[in-house]
Amino acid sequence: MFKKKTAQTARQGRRGPLASVALILIGLVATGGAYAAFSTGTANANTDLSSPAVIEEGQKLFAANCATCHGKQAQGTENGPTLIGVGSASVDFQVGTGRMPMQMSGPQAEQKPVQFTDEQTKALAAYVASLAPGPAIPSQSMLEGGDVANGGELFRINCAMCHNVAGASGALTEGKYAPELKGVAAVHVYEAMLTGPQNMPVFNDLNLTPEEKKDIISYLTYIQENPSAGGLELGSLGPVSEGLFLWVFGLGAIVALTVWVTAKSN
């Protein structure tokens, strides 16, 4: 009786063959998924732009997507400027923000959803960088740990006249505009200063040192993370929205008060 009960208990505690196979499959899927996520993140962060394989992949992407406007050798055409010497930073900014490929002709390239993956963008940047020396994509260490106060002063001196003191954008001539800087990745802010896309002047390292660029990025990060200390921002557009607010509500209140007093006196 005791032996029979023990054998029965052993049979009940033993896993079936299908259960073992299922457990192995779950383990493989979980391990593979984790490895794929890790390897993809690492590849995107540490893509070797000098790798012949990456450059070759970028050349293929360029021929299929960019050569129509910029020429087969990136020499430029009547529809697009030359890319020889613009460097990887310019490509990473234009393609990484969705401005390129350009959707339609206009005063300036509009920002839109990104058309390429990060790996493809880096491959395109690697190919263009291989054609001639140019500004390189900044490393992560060049984007963090700046002086917020100094960055604010530098931004007001060099950038606020176009982008607004709070980075809320501003109108330029002939239908052009300085885009809003809220939500823009730090690497793209640095690349814009370094390459001067479209209407923006170039702030090379003689105009603004790498440390000063880092300070400006820290200032922009700070004003995005900290709400307005003065109350309602009114779009951070300065005298325009504030004057309109006072004109509509302030003058409206005075008129309403005048009408009320007149009605009471009668």
CATH architecture of the domain at 138-230: Orthogonal Bundle
Computed over alpha carbons, the radius of gyration is: 29 Å
Helix content: 55-70%
Structural class: mainly alpha
Proportion of beta-strand residues: under 5%
Strand segment count: 2
CATH topology heading of the domain at 138-230 = Cytochrome Bc1 Complex, Chain D, domain 2
What is the overall number of helices?
11
At the first level of CATH, the class of the domain at 138-230 is Mainly Alpha
State the major sheet.
2 strands, antiparallel
Order of strands, widest sheet? 1-2
Structure description:
The structure is a single chain. The protein is mainly alpha-helical and 266 residues long. Among the domains are: 50-136, Orthogonal Bundle (Cytochrome Bc1 Complex, Chain D, domain 2), CATH 1.10.760.10; 138-230, Orthogonal Bundle (Cytochrome Bc1 Complex, Chain D, domain 2), CATH 1.10.760. 57% of the residues lie in helices and 2% in strands. The chain contains eleven helices and two strands; from the N terminus they run ααααααααββααα. The protein has helices at residues 2-13, 17-45, 52-65, 67-70, 87-96, 118-131, 148-158, 160-163, 186-195, 210-225, 239-265, and strands spanning 170-171, 177-178. Strands 1-2 form a two-stranded antiparallel sheet. A hairpin with a 5-residue loop joins strand 1 and strand 2 (177-178). Helix 5 runs antiparallel to helix 6 (118-131) and helix 7 (148-158) crosses helix 10 (210-225). The longest helix has 29 residues, at 17-45. Mean pLDDT is 83; it is low at 1-5, 7-11 and 32-44. This is Cytochrome bc1 complex cytochrome c subunit. Heme c 1 binds at residues 66, 69-70.
